[in-house]
Design brief:
Layout (H helix, E strand, L loop, with lengths): L1 H12 L12 E6 L2 E6 L2 E4 L7 H4 L4 H33 L3 H43 L6
Antiparallel strand pairs: 1-2, 2-3
């Protein structure tokens, strides 16, 4: 019973209840501990590679371009970063002497390169959402309360 209650509380704690209105804008919600883009009720998981943001941006070409760049950079950055971290771990845990230091250095440089691609990818995703939302507001203004 304790396990069931704990799992239920964790699921509730890792979700948002707010659902953005259908305004044509893209928002971010958390459902079942996973971040999702949401547009007009359609949810797209974000995931480590940025999700299918480009499909939500299809009606705004400038935003779609940034979304594609974000996706490409995250597809390059995440594996590059993980490979670099693995190299550092191997260099520390397995190798010793000068060879270990070389592997650690190459791994650190590779991880740094991956972080650069990942940072640029996230920046392009934010730009895509902002450009799209600005265009969506011009096309279909948000309702006044």
């Amino acid at each position: 019973m304790t396990v069931v209650l704990t799992v239920a509380l964790l699921q509730a704690a890792c979700s948002t209840t707010y659902q953005p209105r259908a305004t044509g804008q893209v928002g971010v919600v958390i459902h079942h501990a996973a971040p999702m883009y949401v547009k007009d009720g359609r949810e797209v998981p974000i995931g480590p590679f940025g999700g299918d943001l480009a499909s939500l941006m299809a009606d705004t070409p400038a935003a779609a371009m940034h979304a594609r760049k974000a996706n490409t950079q995250l597809y390059i950055g995440v594996p590059t970063y993980l490979t670099g971290v693995a190299g550092v771990i191997v260099g520390i845990a397995v190798l010793s002497g000068p060879v270990g230091w070389v592997v650690i250095g190459i791994g650190a440089a590779t991880a740094g390169t991956g972080l650069g691609f990942m940072g640029s990818g996230v920046t392009h995703a934010v730009d895509a959402v902002n450009i799209h939302n600005d265009a969506a507001t011009e096309i279909r203004p948000a309702p006044v309360r």
